[in-house]
Amino acid sequence: MGQAIVNGLAEGSIYAVLAIGLVFIYKITEVANFAQGEIAMVSAFVAFTVLERFGAPLAAALVVAVLTGGLAGLLMERIAIRPVLGSGVLGPAVVTLGLFFVLHGTATVLWGPEVHPFPSFFGNETLSMGGLLVSKQHLAIMAASLVTALALSAFLRFTDTGLAMRSIPQNRFAARLIGLDVPRLYGLTWMIGAAVSAMGGILLAPIVFLNTNMMVDMTNNAFAVAVLGGLGSLVGAFVGGLILGVVKNIGVIYFPTEMKESMAFVIVLVVLLFKPEGLFGKPQFEKI
Amino acid sequence: MQRGLAFAILAGSMAAMLSGPARSEPDMSKNEIVIGAYAGLTGPIPLTGAQMQTGWQTAVDEINAAGGINGRKIRLLIEDDQYEPSRAVSAARKLVERDGVFLMTGLGTPTTTVVARYLERAGVPLLFPMGASASQLNQAGLKSLFMAQPAYSSQAETVIGWMVDHGGVKAPCQINQVDPAGEDHSLGYRRAAEKRNLPVIIEGTERGTMDFSAAVLKAKNAGCDMVYTGMPLESSARVVTAADRLGWHPKFVGFTTQADASLIKLLGPLAEGFHAAEITLAPESDAPSMRDYLAQLKKSHPDTPPTFFITYAYASMMLAAKAIRETPEPLTRKGVIATLESWKEADGGLLGPISYSAADHDGKKSLYIIEVKGGRWHKVSDWIDPGPAR
Amino acid sequence: MIQIEELEVGYGRSVVLQGLSMAAEEGRITSIIGSNGAGKTTLLRAISGMVRPRRGSIAVRGARLERMSPREIVRLGICHVPEGRQVFPELTVAENLRLGAIAVGSKVDEARQQALVFTYFPRLAERRGQLAGTLSGGEQQMLAVGRALMAAPDVLLLDEPSTGLAPKLVQQVFRIIRELNRREKLTVLLVEQNPRLALQLADYSYVLVNGRIAASGSADTMESEAIVRSFYLGSAGHGGDAPACPAVVGLGKEQGD
């Protein structure tokens, strides 16, 4: 049981990393980014190419990957999202779904269907704490997702840019009217959200191996986590990820392992029945 | 996937019914045998298609250079089906009805599923196609289809049986991907376990699972000392790393899919001790059939490495030639089928011993066990041939 | 100060402002009176850059606004206080105010402007930590004005500040506008549906009917014109499109600028 909880926390922290980027973008721009995981995958492949082709040190490759992710987010917002922003909720969602396929397909063409080992920055050792085992890589992911959630929350809470970002979804008309640079803030939001997911990609790749399908299942779970945590809460995304991971791993002790993946959606459904705004979401003021 | 398959079968059957298949035997030429093949030379699997083509052609070159089969040279006609069932059926119809091929082979699970049913009606033998789940086809009871790769169920049964009987394993268990192939692996595992009065412990995981910790922890807590992974190669590797993170190092076992250098590349030192199954001789083997093959490949396709698909295609074409050679004159399709059904531990060359019966066309059950030692796969058993099903 | 010539604004096929010309003098309060749908709000949005005119020009101290973004216009010192409660409901009063300053960047002294806002609206100082969405209607209106003042503007565009407020509160808001104009030397362009209130406050007024200026004049001359009142009050009751009033034709001739 103890080990199942630890495994769940480890698995959940992976969902959390991706969900945090997802929630960040959704919170500010109100766009569900279905391509989030694919940005992570492409960024990890870029790191891999930099490592293999140019023999760069690992740290440099990881920095390149995060920058790639950020740039990808910026370009996506600029080229694909901005033109359809006026077309309701479905327009941007369909565009991000399209971007999922574009990124997935392009990556398959560029890097092929092969699966590659990916080096870990933290080593592959496992630590034992009171008989419970957890790998260094998982600990790193847990720490990274917590730090990211807190850092982004602090950024939104305590900086001028963060305040400006938070104001936009509450009243986009007024935000423009008082002279906020809404397009630039949207671009910045996508850049940050995508860079966070790129970080998730390079943290995850050593565990699941680098391949073009590595993020598909993760993205599904990250969406479940985002809804579970309450779509507007970064800390909710972190805690939601851990809860989902733990419940799934404890659940399989009592139910067949085959049921594990469907449990995510049962949990989400149950939470939404009793708390439609998610665990950490606030009931919203009426949007103007 | 299942629905897609069912639809493909339906479409294929309808196409077959409409065609009014030619059941009559073709007039055999005294100096030529035409063999047809379908393969995806373009489309999603062009690399595999090209390798199969290379292997088939290498065998045909070798046979024809030696004067053919009983004086008849082989003419090989390959149609590109782009890995699409409907195109594969059209290709097969063209080959049978227009080109008058004597027998057929091919590549691809979805395409073979459909083409096999058309050829069954047309009475044309379909020999040793390369497709993933052989038992699905074999269970359909097709008289004209002969498979030369062991079904997953057969592989699982043989490999797990060997691990218990010879590998010091006491409590084998299985982690599968929940799909038809996974079901096949379970079937074989159950048979092996029942035969030895061992409990059955199976953990099913979804396709695309990235974190196997939960399934692995359950297997560990169940007291398993061996895990058979019925899933794609990279998933098996994830199972091994998930166990390693739990400080658990049981014996890990796979089947033909895991018998690949990329498993070692992915796992590094963790790959040590991984067991898998191989169904063709390794290029390092010093068997005469391997030496002949490598020499011929060098002659026909210089600079081409002997990959699994090339080796399999070559070996299966040589096997088809053997069946024709052993069939008494006058050469007929029925005669070839009768010859194949009479094989008992016949020498399948690179494919090892092969045994068919009238009831069992899934006759290539022979395999041998390989294990990763010192960063390379090593053969650790002789050919194991469970023989035809009773 | 604000010079508008031949302004034409429309949405899709409909034309809202058709060749409108007007001016607002520096340091004065200018009001635009008109019924619902006359184009008052569209006029303010055109000035603040929220809608792009099809033709015509908008000039402020020589700068041409009609191709500028709202951000550029705000940075010129022209702030629009929109109709309704256009605050950020889930931010505190203090945060709402800060945004007004953030939007124009480092050139304003945030502390000084906040002190100014709190002297005019002591209520906002009391509620500074409260979420804007929990404020009363009058307080939200004050907050919207205060947020605009945070940008240290020269020109305030006010869209129906009286809407939905109790008469006593309206008087209070209008008194503050008057004070801002006098003491802070703010040029005010006020859009108002209630002609009595507008005329009472403004130094000069325009009557807007169906996207055109129908009449204009200083407060005393306008008020004396019974025609204006009869046409205006007559149509206000109907709401929606202002009916063509016989007086409009006559008044149109008087259009001076």
Structural features, described:
The complex is a heterotrimer of chains A (288), B (390) and C (257). Chain A has a domain at 19-128 and 135-220. Helix content of chain A is 73%, strand content 3%. Chain A has helices spanning 2-29, 36-54, 58-81, 90-111, 136-158, 160-170, 172-177, 182-208, 216-229, 234-254, 260-274; strands at 126-129, 132-135. Chain A has a two-stranded antiparallel sheet with strand order 1-2. In chain A, helix 5 packs across helix 6 (160-170). Chain B is an alpha/beta fold and 390 residues long. Chain B has a four-stranded parallel beta sheet with strand order 7-6-8-9, sandwiched between helices. Chain B has a three-stranded parallel beta sheet with strand order 2-1-3, sandwiched between helices. Chain B has a three-stranded antiparallel beta sheet with strand order 10-13-14, with helices on one face. In chain B, strand 11 (346-347) and strand 12 form a beta hairpin. In chain B, 55% of the residues are buried. Residues 1-6 and 12-22 of chain B have low confidence and may be disordered. Chain C folds into two domains: 2-77 and 156-252, P-loop containing nucleotide triphosphate hydrolases (Rossmann fold, 3-Layer(aba) Sandwich), CATH 3.40.50; 85-153, no CATH class. Chain C has eleven helices and ten strands. Chain C has a six-stranded mixed beta sheet with strand order 6-7-8-3-9-10, with helices on both faces. A four-stranded antiparallel beta sheet of chain C has the order 2-1-4-5, with helices on one face. In chain C, helix 3 packs parallel to helix 6. The radius of gyration of chain C is 18 Å and the shape is globular. Classes of the chains: A mainly alpha (288), B alpha/beta (390), C alpha/beta (257). The A-C interface holds A 160, 163-164, 166-167, 170-171, 173-181, 282, 284-286, 288 and C 48, 50, 70-71, 73-75, 79-80, 82, 84-91, 95, 98-100, 102-104, 133, 147-148, 151.
